[in-house]
């Protein structure tokens, strides 16, 4: 097929594109759901839901997030297929909205994964397109190149929590992150995952905590702003930065320190849901871009 905008042709096969099962839309959808499950199975993540507790959330727990992640798998497959067919944002948005509907039906109306459907959904679509046009560079860059303009052109929803926060604090949130090619995934979370593995001698859960803390220290998370205002965002960033400065997961007692940060977030009703999404996205891109 013709690459998007006629600019993305590459002479050699892409690392995503070996002709085996790994390249199928089903495999891409499976990896998206796996990334969401790995995110849930990570503790302590400040304020967030995990297999150990529900953090600052009254309406969800790990079982509900796992159910939601599995419910979404066929939609990630559909997004990968749509990406492979070089679909525009109107088509992707329709599938994303159907996924949101299925999520709400499965969870009794709880917003378990709205932000994740958007970010991981776009990455799944990009993985499908990469498969079809021999793209060899990061998937985030493909999102920016193929759909960035359309994402930016669509007006922000005014009544969503993200919309309220965007107007009040002038932050771009999930849409800006995507249109820019997911810089928080590539410049923050991926290096922090690698750091975490080095510091904690290959402990994968520790590496995910390190990445979660690095994201919280760096991202303007609209969930933190909605729940805690500028003070909440600054508190969250300060605590995560201090955890990293003190040695992160390279210390013997790191889990106790992370647990006390988690408890401080819960006491203030703070939850960085956008950072949880970005952690899952980083895990997804690691699985796809090897
Ligand atoms: C783009 C969407 C998800 C963003 O919503 P909005 O900014 O209006 O706010 P909303 O409160 O609904 O969701 C925000 C969510 O984004 C995540 N988030 C918050 N801050 C950030 C950040 N800085 N970076 C990335 N994600 C973030 C959180 O999970 C948060 O809950 C939504 O409005 C939308 O357009 N859905 C339609 C589906 C769609 O277009 N799909 C495309 C293909 S999958
Ligand atoms: N493990 C997790 N724990 C909590 N939130 C998560 C987790 N993983 C992802 N998220 C993201 O966080 C968002 C939900 O956060 P939250 O419940 O704070 O938002 P809300 O429904 O907009 O607000 P509120 O619950 O304050 O009314 C989801 O869109 C989801 O993508």
From TrEMBL:
Keywords: ATP-binding, Glycosyltransferase, Nucleotide-binding, Transferase
Catalytic activity from the UniProt record: 3'-dephospho-CoA + ATP = 2'-(5''-triphospho-alpha-D-ribosyl)-3'-dephospho-CoA + adenine
Domain of life: Bacteria
Gene Ontology BP terms: prosthetic group biosynthetic process
Main enzyme class: transferase
InterPro entries: CitG, TriPribosyl-deP-CoA_syn
Pfam families for the chain: CitG (PF01874)
GO molecular function, one term: glycosyltransferase activity
EC number: 2.4.2.52
Coiled-coil region: none
Family in the record: Belongs to the CitG/MdcB family.
Cited function: Involved in the formation of 2-(5''-phosphoribosyl)-3'-dephosphocoenzyme-A, the prosthetic group of the acyl-carrier protein of the malonate decarboxylase.
Protein name: Probable 2-(5''-triphosphoribosyl)-3'-dephosphocoenzyme-A synthase
Taxonomic lineage from the root: Bacteria, Pseudomonadati, Pseudomonadota, Alphaproteobacteria, Rhodospirillales
């Amino acid at each position: 097929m013709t690459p998007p905008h006629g600019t993305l042709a590459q002479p050699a096969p892409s690392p995503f594109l070996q002709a085996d099962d790994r390249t199928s839309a089903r495999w891409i959808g499976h990896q998206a759901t796996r990334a969401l499950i790995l995110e849930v199975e990570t503790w302590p993540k400040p304020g967030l839901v995990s297999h150990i507790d529900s953090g600052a959330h009254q309406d969800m727990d790990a079982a509900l997030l796992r159910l939601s992640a599995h419910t979404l798998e066929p939609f990630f497959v559909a997004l990968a297929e749509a990406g492979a067919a070089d679909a525009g944002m109107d088509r992707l948005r329709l599938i994303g909205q159907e996924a949101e509907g299925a999520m709400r039906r499965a969870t009794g109306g709880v917003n378990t994964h709205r932000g994740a459907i958007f970010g991981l959904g776009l990455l799944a679509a990009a993985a499908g397109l990469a498969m079809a046009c021999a793209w060899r560079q990061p998937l985030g860059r493909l999102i920016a190149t193929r759909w960035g303009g359309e994402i930016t052109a669509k007006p922000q929803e005014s009544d969503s929590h993200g919309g309220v926060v965007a107007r009040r604090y002038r932050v771009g949130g999930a849409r800006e992150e995507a249109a820019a090619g997911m810089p928080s995934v590539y410049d923050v979370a991926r290096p922090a995952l690698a750091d975490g593995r080095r510091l904690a001698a290959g402990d994968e859960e520790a590496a995910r905590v390190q990445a979660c803390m690095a994201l919280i220290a760096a991202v303007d998370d609209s969930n933190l702003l909605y729940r805690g205002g500028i003070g909440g965002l600054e508190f969250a960033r300060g605590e995560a930065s201090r955890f990293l400065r003190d040695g992160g997961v390279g210390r013997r007692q790191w889990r106790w320190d992370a647990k006390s940060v988690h408890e401080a977030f819960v006491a203030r009703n703070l939850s960085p849901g956008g950072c949880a999404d970005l952690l899952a996205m980083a895990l997804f891109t690691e699985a796809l871009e090897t």
